[in-house]
Amino acid sequence: MGVEWRGQGRGGVRVPGWPQGRCPPGAAMAAAPRGAAEPRQSPEQRRAADIIRLLTLYRPLLDAFIIDFFTEDLWAQLPPAWQPALAAATPVQLAGLLGGRGGPGAAWPLSLLAFGAAARALAFPRGCPGASPRPPCQSSGLPPLLRRHVKPKKQHEIQRLGKLLRRLSRATGCECVVDIGAGQVRAGGHGEGVVLGIPPAQLSPCPSQGIPPAQLSPCPPQGHLSRLLAFSLGLRVTAVESDARLVGLAQRFDQELLRELAKTRGLAHRRPPLCPLTPRAPRHVAGRLDPAAPWGEFLLHPDPPGAGPAARNPLGGPGGSEDGERVLLTGLHACGDLGPALLCHFARSPAVAAVALVGCCYMKLSSAPQQPPGYPLSASVAALPGHQLSYRAREAACHALEEYQGRLRGGGAHLRAHCYRAVLESLIRAAEPSKKHLGLQPGRKAHTLSFPQYAQLGLPLAGLDPVRVPLDSGAVGAMLEQQHKVVAFYTLGQLLAPVVETLILLDRLLYLREQGFYCALVPLFNPRFSPRNFVLVAARTPLATALAGLAKDSEDGHSSEDEDVEEAEFPREGQSPQ
What we know:
Layout: E1 3-5, E2 13-15, H1 25-28, H2 43-57, H3 59-62, H4 83-88, H5 91-99, H6 110-122, H7 152-172, E3 176-180, H8 192-196, H9 224-232, E4 236-241, H10 244-266, E5 283-286, E6 288-289, E7 299-300, E8 327-335, H11 338-348, E9 352-360, H12 379-382, H13 391-396, H14 401-410, H15 417-431, H16 451-461, H17 474-480, H18 483-514, E10 518-523, E11 534-539, H19 544-547, H20 560-566
Parallel strand pairs: 3-4, 3-8, 4-5, 8-9
Antiparallel strand pairs: 1-2, 6-7, 9-11, 10-11
Helix pairs in contact: 2-18, 5-14, 5-18, 6-18, 7-9
């Protein structure tokens, strides 16, 4: 049973079939290729090789932009055996395909089932998503003063990461933390550029754009994680941000908390606080990371130059940090190349005892010939043929699989978004062929409009007069009637999204292993409302003590957020310490 991709201009890619009764392709592909014997590989290396084989087989699907659905006839490029089943599938059945449960009444071709099984087998388990599709309005695990200015999603994240850093502090004996990005970044997966598959040149800028690749900037901070670590956990925290003006904003929040804390301390004799805080504010410094510099030159001048005094290097001199102690390094949702830069500085700096990193915005990772590249970092992945990831593939890794499953189950107008944009792309290209893949944003609620209303908002953004474009033609109606096919095609790409993220995370883990460090990948956050939920932890000493019992740490009062993560397994294959 063969599967053939029929791509325009691609020459066709023949995919070997998988006989019935055998294990899923994700397991089968672990077998060594024919020929000379190869050096023994670790489970992580084998998984990375298997992922690259799978992505190579389905690269036409992975690299397709959904806005090109009509202009490049993407449906015709699907394997013919898949088309009838996908065309007849309901959104609920497609949600079942994403989750591996089939959906009520679904009858999928065996080759499609094999594709889905391979994708799920190779992706890292993302932890238990829990029952709630969104975090509680307020986290009971955070003191009330630390919830101010903090959205529920961020409360969940800083509480979880704070607990992990506290354990790392105890295990390593480090009381100093360097927080790069100061606890809040622009995460991928929510803007129209990511959701609709807009190519890189048309994306709205991230704060790291416009800065030379060798001089990366954390995204705009407000210091939420830093305040939790300092005020609640009593750690000495240095928060690094490139823009001195944003440093001032974080310091203003610190002073506001100190004033409120002074008031509560004056009333402590009447009613002792339930969650006592330490009046120790973080130290905020302005500076930029240089990933190519030696560890002794960790920071560059702030951006813009002259906006504030040059910061002293928090990683300090040969003996440790600037005050002679070793430090923990952390970054919560470090954008693009900022994550790899943190790992490189950890590997080079004897002052850093451990690092805890949550990445995001994978589409902004640099690649060869940029040196050092953001991907691949490891020699193991760089040596594998076909390891390269297109912009579209890295963008897919930023998608929120669980969120899209929920949209499929709920149905409704949200599912129109991709079809509307694909039809609009077809109209724009017919009128002006040179206007391709424009980053148009007709509005967040545009999917609730009729298509003519949507087009009347979108066409002027492309410099076109809606009066001159036929919006009620039979061709437009025929495209709109294919919304179910657009949704089905997009769903197939969603199946591969966690696989691509797993490869990027494996590359980072293997890089650290190659340097001789102990490391682990932990699904720390609830993936339903924090899609980038893996934290990469690395240390110079074994991690077993720091990670033991992390999921069952109940010191925050058994909140619903804890119940979500308690059911996740720590660690899994590819996630265990060296």
